[in-house]
Amino acid sequence: MKNNKTKTQVSKKNSGRRGMERRDFFKLVGGGVVIFFLPRCAGDPVPVAEPGKRSLPKDYNAFLKIDEDGTVSCFTGKIEQGQGINMALVQMMAEELNVPMEKIKMVMGDTELCPWDGGTWGSLTVRQFGPNMRRAAAEARGVLLELASNKLKVPASQLVVNDGVISDPNNPGKTFTYGQLAKGKKIDKYLDVKPEPENYTKYTFVGKSFKRPDAGAKVTGKAKFTGDMRLPGMVYARIVRPKSLSGKLTSVDYSEAEKIEGVKVVRDGELVAVLHENLVVAGRALEKIKADYSYDEIGVDNKTIFESMLKADSTANVEESAGDNEAGFKLCDKVIETEIHDPFLAHAFIETHSALASFEGEKLTVWASSQTPYPLQDALASHFSMPLNKVRVIVPFVGGGFGGKSKNQQAMEAARIAKACGKPVMVIWTREEEFMYDNFHTAGVLKIKSGIDKSGLIKAWDYHSYFCGTRGAEIIYDMPNHSITSHGHKEGTPRVHILDTGPWRAPNNNTNTLGRELQIDRLAAAAKMDPVEFRLKNLKDQRVIDTLKAAVELFGYVPAKKYPSGRGIGVAVGTDVGTMVAEIAEIEVDMKTGKVKVIRIACAQDMGLCVNPHGATMQMEGCLTMALGYTFTEEIRFEGGNVIDRNYDTYELPRFSWVPKMETIILDRPDQPPHGGGEPAIIAVGAVICNAIFDATGARLYQMPFTPERVLEAMKKA
Amino acid sequence: MEETISFQLNGKQTELKIDPTQTLLWVLRNNLGFTGTKYGCGIGFCGSCIVLIDNEPVRSCSVTVGEVKGKSVVTIEGLSKNGELHPVQKAFVEHDALQCGFCTPGMIMNAAGLLIKNPSITRDEIISGMEDNLCRCGAHVHIIDAVESAAKEMKGGK
Asked: What predicted TM-score, i.e. pTM, was given to this entire model?
């Protein structure tokens, strides 16, 4: 705490971001003790903003407030989408402030109440935001102790805090609650400190398991998602869409639609929408609209896209390299080359994109199922040429995001239609629209060439990713000679991805972990070694080694006498933004049909400090379950710019009977910073199943997902 | 053409003038304000719109309001009795059988229907009975645990 540099007053520059003077700030939030803080460490480089976008602020982007009634509130632009940060953050604050958890209120994702935030993704909330929030809480505690010290006329160091009550052990009759101390105060401070590792031995709340705080609202139907909102005079909008993504509107005739009672059609450029106070009637009127489009010829489909990626004129960035691969290959006894194809995937959250927009006087309010309320606020303000403080975005409960609710197209549509018709407008995408206009997990190709020497050591590793980035491809094995090259879009060339792409839970790490771990497994087989032993022999990252050993113990893994062994057991390890995972799975393959059944999967995870083991375990299980989809069934088929899979009937999500016995373990690392756990366990499932299929059948699959047809085909080749 | 349709909704006699061909899901949400019943796919595949019709779990996106004339419809809002959560709801809270919570009402209504039909349901029967309800967050194991424990509680803890 002594390193904290605090400013006692909000400067004009700082308050200007919110377009608000200090007195206005307190008018809005009431009195109390307020600590402003950043989601990153002081001294870290401030990320450069993309043109036209706001950068991460230099001063603060969240604050914590002790109210006059003793309530502790944390105001943040982060949003809860099921991942459970609404509990983990509360635990961290309760810990630092020594207050009961019921006294803590999270105020999230409302641009009018909360400071700017870039968005909720990448397991960043606990990892980056958490430690700074805890520091802010410690700072608040310091301020309160100071206030109590002045009142009690004893040094702050002599005081103790218990459940939000400060007392002097030498004079136990006299106590002050946080609320009493904050009463009538307008204290605001800036936290500008690099968080240091702390002594994590005496935790009360952090590291303990807690259940979801919102389950009561969610099991009774009381939890309001965006589509459940209602405003007086509100109409539902259904949007006229082309058959294919490339369609450009050439003419539209909506005279028949408008004959239906109460139906209105509005047009804003290309955007044509049918409005009615009843969504079903709006949908029926939509069918009466005659719209013509011109379409671009799009020759690439879901089968040919991989070839087009390899042929495309692309950039090549060497992202990591060491030693000399050419010299390394000369030392190799066996060299293996692998090419992997990974298709587009839909986010397929059950809540489709929804938004409600309402103009009132000069003010626009938008409720949206969104992971990025502030970038949405920016986009709306810029589109309508409105000042930021006249645009409010509120994120109610979100029915799943997984990275897919970051682009906010539906909210822009709702606002444009609301402007055009002068009424509050609700847009709820149909499932068919969702499968067309969602952004998709990036399809990609990997080409890997590597080799081992006679002793089974990896001497060369040449890794190329095409149009799918390199997240997760980091060097965790001892590879003295290696290079990792990312091939991407070259300016001025046609776009290779026909569909819109975006982050999908642990973006592209599934692809890269499959690539590396499949290749490692092929090397193990070439070395005639057990795949766990081969990995332990070649791994260099100690955290990965420890995590793999934990998985081995959890699974009760016995080394194979030969590989493939016929047992149907696979192993894979991986790393995702600082968290390490190791998975071992046992499967059964129906040799006649090619259908794979996962019997059990053991997953070990080193996520540093784990704030809520129960919540983290649920995230691990959720990842393992969700991953069964991309492993076995999920693949977006498209042709001529038209998505073929438009609903759950042909795009199959994991079901109850697919779920294997899952065993999880989180390595006890209370002395390490938290790395987050919303995504990591999903990354290695494709690889672990791929390797288990090889162990069961001797067949290697190189294309996701592993459908029965592909398994049978690979078995024929094996 | 509009006609007057009456049915029991969450134990109360309800009457409305409406085009009987409208889907029950949207009548519940639009006209009656029961937004706990969710739209997920519109083709009866995901199960998030399940309600009980005469104690049968039915996908409300795939029936019309005309079809429930004279019947009894229970939505997630009507499942608790006298402020007391239904055993399935209670078990979902206890087992943290949800994450984002969007599929939850449909899951609970389907499970409640399964337990009415088969109070002695086994774990395997629960899995096959819940098979056609989709959850994207991956809360499946907790959901099965919750339904199993609710079944036990409803049988008197046996």
From this structure: 0.92
